[in-house]
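ARCHIVE RECORD
Type: protein–small molecule complex
Small molecule: adenosine monophosphate
Source of inputs: curated submission
Record status: active
Notes field left blank by submitter.
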Amino acid sequence: MKLYNTMSRAVEAFTPLNGTKVGLYTCGPTVYNYAHIGNYRAYIFEDILRRVLTFAGHDVTQVMNLTDVDDKTIRGAIEAGVSLDDYTRPYKEAFFEDLKTLRVEPAEHYPSATEHIEEMIRLIERLFENEAAYQSDDGSVYFNVSAYADYGKLAHLDISGLQSGARVAQDEYEKDNVADFALWKAWDEADGDVVWDSPWGRGRPGWHIECSAMSMKYLGESFDIHTGGVDNMFPHHENEIAQAEAATGKPFVQTWLHCEHLRVNGKKMAKSLGNFFTLRDLVEKGYTGREIRYLLLSAHYRQELNFTLSALDAARTALGRLDEFRARLTEKAEGEAGSLPDWAAAGRDGFRAGVEDDLGMPQALAALFDMVHNGNRALDAGDVDGAGAAAALAVLDEMDSVLALKPDAAAAGPDDAVQALLDERATARREKQWADSDRIRDELAAMGWEVRDTPEGQKLRSLA
Ligand code: AMP
Ligand code: ZN
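STRUCTURE (tokenized, with ligand):
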């Protein structure tokens, strides 16, 4: 398969460093608030990457960090008057719930920064040994950018005019402010009781060192793929490379991938701009995780995507067509899968070619919808037998190992047992057997369905 490597600015054939094993590090959330769906665009892009690597026969180990100590989490905890741990825990839990709603396959490791302070301290010690770190008068420890000759290679910075010894203490800054950055921040009052001991005195780690230390702990000193949104490229990923390579002397990462932003009216969706929707906001408006997933995965990851509610409505329509096609094939399928109808073979080949060419989702989805169109025509014409339908369904399932858009039981509607209870209840109500009617309503609720009585009859709603 091929992937666009931000480091080379070119689409390259991807070959793992160790046989079929792929180490993948994906920068995770800062748990100081609910993630917005711009963040989820990045996590869904990474989910697609992981699933396509698996689809192409690789064995993926994914690590996603949880940033639970930084300028923003500390400020939040102090404002709320609770401990850092109590402040971040609910946002961690909400994050994992959201991933489930969006059908994101879990990573193998979700390390929290606060549980890896030892590893960060050891990495900073190695940087001291290699004369790439120094302690300033205020007690904080900085990375010496001029000690690492390749600084700027990812973001393509020209650092010839760099002022030696200039320093930046914040975690996030712009390219104009390239300077020595903080590895370890000496404690100050604004940190409250968030503090650890270190060989350089009490303090806390900078944001960037977290990802260098945790990625190398779980994936080794050189690994295959590292990803994030484009805003992570500088300074975060540039600094990660500098810290890792200055410590180990080895190449840190083979392939860098960055997804473009989700935008709203031409601007990046961002907490600081207040133009964001959380997943919960959209679920409250009646959209499902599956619909939001569809929208976020349907654009190419290197293209900006403009978010609108009408695009979500279009996602609902597209999923409706897919579900209907799947239902028609399911009804028709009989026995073992037979030879694949031409339209299904074309769909399978087009889909694979799309996803394996730098995760070309628009191309892959076009192949899928051509398959739906041609398959529906073949079904209308009575040209599909049971074995052909079963084979086509198997192709849809194979694609779904990447897409994860299959309707779940609730979306597929009530099964026969639920339908039988519903009929029984309709009879009970006609005969004014209210106790029976109520008992069946409770049974349905226990099976995950809420039944309401309306002038048009009984209406079901999934509680799942
Ligand atoms: P943060 O919690 O701000 O560190 O962001 C977590 C991830 O979401 C990072 O990989 C960011 O690059 C990414 N991200 C933030 N905003 C957007 C956006 N509007 N569109 C796509 N990705 C984003
Ligand atoms: Zn990171």
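CURATOR ANNOTATION: The mean pLDDT is 95.
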